[in-house]
Every structure is written in structure tokens, then in C-alpha cells.
Amino acid sequence: MCRGKRHSDCTHLDKLAQVETKPIIPIEDDFKLGKNTLVTDKEKLLKRAPRKYISRGLSLAMINYIKSIRLETDLPEAELDIYINSFWNMFRCVDTLKKKDGKITSQYCKNRLCMVCNSIRQAKQINKFHPVISEWKNARFVTVTGGPTVAKEDLSGRLDFMQKVDKGIRKMLQKKFSRGNCEKFIAIKKIECTFSFSNFGFHPHYHYIFKSPEIAKTYVSEWLKRTAILGTYEGAQKNIPCDSNTVLELTKYFTKVSTTVETKTGDKGINPRKLIYLDSLFYQFIAFRNKRTFTSYNIKFPLEPEQAVVVEDSEIIQVQEGLEGGPPTDYYTWVMNDWYSLKTGLGASDYIVDNRTRNIVNSIRKNYSIYD
Length: 372
What we know:
Strand order of the largest sheet: 1-3-2-13-14
Number of domains: 2
Helix content: 25-40%
Oligomer: single chain
Number of strands: 14
Strand content: 15-25%
Order of helices and strands: HEHHEEHEHEEHEHEEHEEEEEH
Largest sheet: 5 strands, antiparallel
Distance between the termini: 11 Å
């Protein structure tokens, strides 16, 4: 593990961008895109540009971090290479925009830490689930925890135990339903993890939206019984009515990229700062690998028109919005802070990096380890 903020074996970030990499096999959640982005839609591109800027900086920093721990970690070299390639894929996400008939298409990495892809996931999940949940008049929003915070070495094991308990409760409720003793298990589940700087612990937990209040109550009761060995208690669980913010809470990212750190500032009191610790993110990234973070149970959705085409080959999955006809009429390529037209040289979003966004990216390089 990288012990210092400036590890002696670390490669500088500006040199990493020059390394040639191979395509990868994605290990992230799958998703499809909806409508095309219009070239004239400056507002949408202007929102996407800072996400691209931050994701690019974060991906390089994660590559740098993984390279720095090669000789200190027990993870196999082949596995580390998969992670490095995954973050190179994140670095290249939405690098090139293709224009045709006034519409823009691109390729997406689907990395769980990518700001661009996460915003797409969240928007699609909100659009998909909000109409359904709004029809559930007595729906409940439930949060169940995996006990007190857990050390990085035990995070994967805790996730596996939580998954086993969750599966057992659902199986029990399904049997009761088949016997006519309870309502059908209809719900949406999201697993999330937070990090506590105060004790260097990780806190995995489930968010659920249940259609039936009785099922929600039974689930929480069973969860407390089956996780008592972890130290769970009733006061740490949540079972409240759904409101307008429920879907937003459920569809947010599986982990927060930044960690809030409070430092004393003399007579001025406490100064809270949001910092990005690469090792904290990396431990969560590998613990959640190949784990489904968002699941729905017994919910039927109306069929959507196929607006997206998933092109697959043996090495890489590219997600493109479907366009018919001939080749693109122009390409925009990302340079520093915007996508610039290869024909006119003009920017697609006219984005100018502000100090706050620049400071976020700069802070990534200075905060490798939560244990310094």
C-alpha cells in the first residue's frame, strides 16, 4: 500500500497519459443510452464537460496509485492489469464525439467511478423507476446496515455476508407468499458504501423501496435477527414513508468519491474539507467488482424502443446511440477542457474550467492514503 502522499515509486501523472494501452473487457454494470444529444444542446454538453474533466484526472490518479502498490499488494499482477485497463477505459470515455445530422454520439466506459457514466445511469434509473414508484401509495423507504464500520480487509467478506442474509430473507418471504401468508415481494434495492475518516472504516448498507409496508416491516425485523452477530441494532435502521427525494436517494452512486475531513483551524473552529483518497476508492472498487449494485424484484416495466445499439467484439464493448445512414459529418475530440471540432476548431460546449473544479483534480494527486 502507498503509505505517503508522494510515493517514491509513483509515476508522474503527466507521463501516464503517454502510455499505450490495450482495449479491455469491461467489468462494470451494463446500461444503454436513450435519445441522441444535439450539437446545439450546449447546456447538456456544458454539464458533461466538467464531469469529463474530473473523471479524466481521477482515472489517471487511480492508474498512478495502482502502479505504486504493485510491489506491496497481494493482488495478482494480472488482476492489477485489469484494473489499470479499466481506468484507461475511463480516461478515454467520451473522448470523441461523432456528429451527424446535427446529432452527437460517443462511446462510454461504464466504469463505476466515471462521473459521465454515473450521471447517465442515474438519469435513466430515475426516468425508469419514478413513474412506477409514484403509483405505490404506501411505499416505504428502508435502509439496513451491515453493522458497525468494517476494516478494508473485511469489506468483501461483509458484502458477501450481507448478500447471503438478503437472499435468505427474500427466499423466506417468497415461500410465505406462495403459501398465501404474505404479500408479494415487490421492491427496488441499491447497495451503497460510505467511508468514515474518523475510524478508517467502511460502512456498506442497503437502500430498499418496498411497495408493501408489511413486507418492509418484516424485512427489517428479519434483518436485525440475522445480522445480530455483526452488532446491528434497531436504531441504526430506517423505515420511513417514501417522498419526492426517495428515487434520487436510491439511484445515487454506490460510493462517494470524496471524503469529508474536519480539521481544526485555531480560533475559527472546524474547517470541513472534501478530499479524494485513492486507496479508499480502490478498496471499494475491488470489493464491489462483479457485484450488482442496483436490482428490482417482481416489477414489470413497459417496453422501450431500441434507441441504443451495443456493439460487441472479443475485447471491448462500445455503447453507441443508433444512427442510420452514411458516415458522420464531423468529429469533436477532447483537448484539455472541451471537445473541439476537427473541421472548424470550435468547442462543442465552450466550457472553461473554474477554480473549484481545477482544485478538485489537483487535490486528487495530494491525497493518496487515508492512513498517513
